[in-house]
Design a protein that fits this description.
single chain, mainly beta, 3-stranded antiparallel β-sheet, 5 strands, globular
Length: about 80
């Protein structure tokens, strides 16, 4: 699920269902430009959403309920400037 948190309220922008095996590591990637977000799982495009709520902001990763999710090697890379 790709969520937006604004003014303390959580809203799902887009959700997909897929099988996730316990104990396995997965590669997650989100590309964003303007109001467009594209999410990938192990290199495969899984979802696309639009949201124009923010011009800039922060990111966060969340393992929900009792998922016991762990995150490693999180990086944020700016897009190359046009020029």
């Amino acid at each position: 699920v790709l969520y937006r948190m604004k003014d303390g309220k959580l809203a799902a922008l887009k959700s997909i269902s897929t099988v996730i095996e316990q104990g396995e590591w997965y590669g997650l990637k989100v590309e964003t430009q303007g109001d467009r977000f594209v999410g990938f799982l192990n290199g495969k495009k899984m979802l696309e959403a639009k949201d124009d709520s923010f011009e800039k902001g922060r990111i966060g990763l969340w393992g929900r309920d009792d998922s016991l999710a762990r995150f490693d090697n999180v990086t944020v890379n700016p897009l190359p400037s046009a020029g």
